[in-house]
């Protein structure tokens, strides 16, 4: 039998790190300009209304003997507003501040139209019929009573779905009235994300795992709404359908999203400062400066470039990247002047879009550099400055602020790093002033990182890869002041005028005629035999743009313009 003593539970308090403290931003959140539903504390998603809970009551905690620092604590929501109901419990690791949430829900009255009456077949919310015990380490020993956790899955009525699990520290089932199940047509599919807890390390015969969850359908058009609960199982395999779901926003008005005045207020309050490396020579500029200082449009098969209007009005618009056009730097002496950028003109280009079914707002901030410099290869203790690999005309990089639409609070920032990236919670950011974070842009490649340092794109274990060096310097752009909102589709036609250059879906740089492998092979051939294969393997996975052979496309052609970030 699976014994409680195999693990450290919540009654052994001397073995646990202190319970995490709630996180607050460095400065108070201001009063936002008036609007419809943004920062009102509640969001209507159709037949139901949701509210966000960030106060919790601790229920149970556990950790494995092999790693007592990785304690997972399970909580139930506290301070639920009148009329709202819980859908499940929350959990997180103890090694970080308490900064999570769960949504609570209530039904709302809809206008009595024929269409609505036909659609509404039954109540949107119902109590579960019963609970199923999913897992517990309780072996029935009297000494274990009160020290073990019990994980319960609500058994929904037919046509309804459970949204989360419940945890108790006593063997009795929770009250049926404690949670609500949601009518299935008001829900969406979710998927597991981060593995938080895994007992199979200790007991392969009776495993138990806990994951965070996220909606499967994400991005600007995604309707999935994260409830904030967790998934757990003793037998689930990757690819199997989960026993719980997430909510679906069926309100086409997206009433929780900010209006244009609120967008400007959010950017003024949260806009980070972007620091470029002190040795950076390929600095950013505005797109207008780049175009009016000699950038040329080339049509495939021609050698003569066409001057481009500074607004990009004469660029081919729409469609996809058919490789029939590209932009290049001017020739002659002007080429070097343009490729080094113009920091004074630089600004962040802002795309505002719904996230997680309109319960969050993503403020994507794009920075443009006329040129991407060569990479530096690190092989163990050696740093090798490459002369060509990594070079390409024009470089579009971005970071994204995720704002909670219930409160207007900054929750996290996404740092784009070439072909991947990372979300960093607000508690782990560096702040330069008030609630304005710091973004570190790496030397030559302009990838974004939350802290200064030397980051390796490759194998940290082998110490082989491309260096990404980030540090603070006098070269910076304050995005809270130097920005331009270029797109916010959800606001409707005419609210934000998209610039002509944004519609250019082709490459912002020419195809490079040299073979980047030639330069790399020179270095591989002089390496010790034992290092040659790892270096070749790492470079085979380098993104096309970093290889320097293809010019980058503009922001609107990137898959995260409409889709979610890569996480």
* Category from helices, strands and their pairing: mainly beta
Which segments are poorly predicted (pLDDT under 50) over 5 or more consecutive residues?
10-15, 113-118
Number of strands: 38
Strand ordering within the main sheet: 31-30-29-26-25-38
Main sheet record: 6 strands, mixed
Shape: globular
Proportion of residues in helical segments: under 10%
Mean pLDDT: 89
Query: How many helices in DSSP terms?
Result: 7
Rg is: 26 Å
Beta-strand percent range: 25-35%
N- to C-terminal separation?
38 Å
What can you tell me about this protein's structure?
β29 and β30 form a beta hairpin. The chain is globular. The protein has 7 helices and 38 strands. The chain has a 6-stranded mixed β-sheet, with helices on one face. 10% of the residues lie in helices and 34% in strands.
In short:
This protein is mainly beta and 567 residues long. The model is unreliable at 10-15 and 113-118 (pLDDT under 50).
Note the main attributes of this structure.
7 helices, 38 strands, globular, mainly beta, 6-stranded mixed β-sheet
What does the secondary structure layout of this molecule look like, with pairings?
Elements (H helix, E strand, L loop, with lengths): L7 E2 L32 E3 L3 E6 L2 E9 L2 E11 L7 E2 L3 E4 L8 E6 L6 H6 L5 E2 L3 E6 L14 E6 L4 E2 L4 E3 L12 E3 L3 E2 L1 E9 L10 E7 L8 E2 L4 E4 L12 E3 L11 H11 L2 E4 L10 H6 L3 E4 L6 E2 L17 E4 L4 H7 L8 E8 L4 E13 L3 E4 L2 E4 L6 E13 L5 E8 L2 E6 L5 E3 L2 E6 L6 E2 L3 E7 L4 E7 L5 E3 L4 E5 L28 H11 L2 H11 L4 H4 L20
Parallel strand pairs: 21-33, 25-38
Antiparallel strand pairs: 1-4, 2-3, 3-8, 4-5, 5-7, 6-8, 9-14, 10-11, 11-13, 12-14, 15-20, 16-17, 17-19, 18-20, 21-37, 22-23, 22-24, 25-26, 26-29, 27-28, 27-36, 29-30, 30-31, 32-33, 33-34, 35-36
